[in-house]
Amino acid sequence: MSAYGAPQVEAGADGRPHLMSDEELRGWLRNVGGSQPQLLDDDAVWRKFAPVFRNDFQLLDTWAPPRDPEPLPVPLSVFGGRRDRLVGEDRLLSWEAFATHFRGLKRYEGDHFYVMNHRRPLAAAITAAMRSAAA
């Protein structure tokens, strides 16, 4: 799992991005990082991508986790950025309660989009976790 907290019943504190105005959503995306300024600043490009963002956020904002889910029956490793303002260490570690074989949390320097600067080390860590789980 990467940069996503375990399911929780209460609503997130992110302001439900799919309901934000265009300007609010653009500002929110600038704040969390990961979106190119060209996408956020160009009105023609924004009109094409805004519906994609809204649909993704609507899915995340409205999904309700199952009550009392069974723990995942597979080994689970969790990854995240040390400066992620969307998903903190506590939310990443909360996956332990949802896994029968929690393999731990590995954090990398960066924010919610830490993966952009750590592709190779992250791929190596995922490969190592999979090999360890298969052994």
Task: Describe the structure concisely for a colleague.
With about 140 residues, this protein is of the alpha+beta class. It has 5 helices and 2 strands; from the N terminus they run H-H-H-E-H-E-H.
How would you sum up this structure, described in words?
Strand 1, helix 4 and strand 2 (99-108) form a beta-alpha-beta unit. The chain has 2 domains: 17-62, no CATH class; 72-134, no CATH class. The protein has helices spanning 22-32, 37-41, 43-62, 89-93, 119-134, and strands at 72-81, 99-108. It is α+β, with helices and mostly antiparallel strands and 135 residues long. It has a two-stranded parallel ribbon.
Topology overview:
Blueprint: H1 22-32, H2 37-41, H3 43-62, E1 72-81, H4 89-93, E2 99-108, H5 119-134
Parallel strand pairs: 1-2
Number of E strands: 2
Strand content: 5-15%
Largest sheet: 2 strands, parallel
The share of residues in helices is: 40-55%
Structural class: alpha+beta
Radius of gyration in whole Å, from Cα? Answer: 17 Å
Strand order across the largest sheet: 1-2
Uncertain stretches: none
Shape: globular
Distinct helical segment count: 5
- What is the mean predicted local confidence, pLDDT? 89
Number of domains: 2
**Secondary-structure element order, N to C:** HHHEHEH
What is the terminal-to-terminal distance?
20 Å
